[in-house]
């Protein structure tokens, strides 16, 4: 008999996405848990109308919020998915036939196909993430800007999730500054320090990685835009860290 899976989703004003993501995971999951950070739109009402259990919780950070979800899952296996993500049909078929009971792994990673609008971003692929896991053997970290499942015994699956990252390039640019500030604070809190040359070195490295190492140069002008945004994000992260160091010394 197929092992039952609980889907967990964290939300804040996800009216646009919540219906599609719940209906997507219900194809393989017997239970859907939505932990909502007090949305002001109809996210919770839509989720409940589709049979999901909704819990309200002040935002604890990405990892913290996803770890908070785990206690409400009645199944041992959890599929953690963001509201702007979907499992491809091939992934659904594969997971339906995955023998979780007899496999030797505690978790599984999937590839992510990320989009800006309708444009697939080649340099962000495969962007592997561990999302299907046994909550008794592993779980989400609670520190840092981005959450991830802490697990050593996992298997990489060659199936994809779709990730509708940003509606357009304007949204990407508008969020770049916030990402840079948050990452700088996290790295600084971890004890990392920056030298005067780090913004230039890391900014150039991010641009080179996206276009050359990740093959973005063959994806058209949109890939150049993304590479510039990544370089800017990396550059500003280290600029902000240097500023924090200077302020500390005053």
TrEMBL record:
Entry GO MF terms: transferase activity
Top-level taxon of the source organism: Bacteria
Residue intervals passing through the bilayer: none
A Pfam family this chain is assigned to: Glycos_transf_2
Domain Glycosyltransferase 2-like as annotated: residue spans: 9-119
Keyword Transferase belongs to the record: yes
Keywords from the UniProt entry: Transferase
Gene3D superfamilies per record: Spore Coat Polysaccharide Biosynthesis Protein SpsA, Chain A (3.90.550.10)
Cross-referenced InterPro entries: Glyco_trans_2-like (IPR001173), Nucleotide-diphossugar_trans (IPR029044)
KW Transport (keyword) present: no
CDD domains (UniProt xref): Beta4Glucosyltransferase
UniProt record similarity statement: Belongs to the glycosyltransferase 2 family. WaaE/KdtX subfamily.
Name of the protein described by the UniProt record: Glycosyltransferase family 2 protein
Organism: Sulfurimonas crateris
């Amino acid at each position: 008999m197929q092992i039952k899976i609980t889907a967990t989703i964290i939300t804040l004003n996800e009216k646009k996405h919540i219906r599609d993501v719940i209906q997507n995971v219900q194809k393989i999951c017997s239970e859907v848990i939505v932990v909502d950070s007090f949305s002001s739109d109809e996210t919770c009402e839509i989720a409940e109308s589709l049979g999901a259990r909704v819990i309200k919780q002040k935002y604890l950070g990405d990892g913290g919020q996803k770890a908070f979800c785990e206690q409400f899952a009645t199944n041992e296996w959890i599929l953690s998915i963001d509201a702007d993500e979907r499992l491809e049909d091939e992934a659904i078929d594969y997971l339906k036939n995955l023998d979780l009971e007899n496999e030797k792994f505690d978790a599984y990673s999937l590839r992510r196909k990320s989009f800006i609008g309708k444009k697939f971003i080649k340099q962000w692929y495969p962007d592997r993430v561990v999302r299907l896991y046994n909550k008794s053997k592993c779980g989400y970290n609670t520190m840092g800007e981005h959450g991830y499942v802490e697990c050593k015994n996992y298997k990489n699956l060659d199936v994809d999730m779709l990730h509708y990252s940003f509606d357009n390039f304007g949204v990407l640019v508008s969020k770049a500054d916030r990402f840079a500030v948050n990452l700088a604070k996290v790295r600084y809190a971890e004890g990392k320090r920056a030298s005067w040359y780090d913004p230039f070195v890391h900014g150039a490295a991010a641009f080179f990685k996206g276009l050359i190492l990740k093959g973005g140069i063959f994806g058209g002008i949109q890939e150049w835009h993304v590479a510039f945004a990544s370089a800017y994000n990396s550059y500003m992260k280290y600029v902000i860290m240097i500023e924090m160091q200077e302020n500390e010394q005053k």
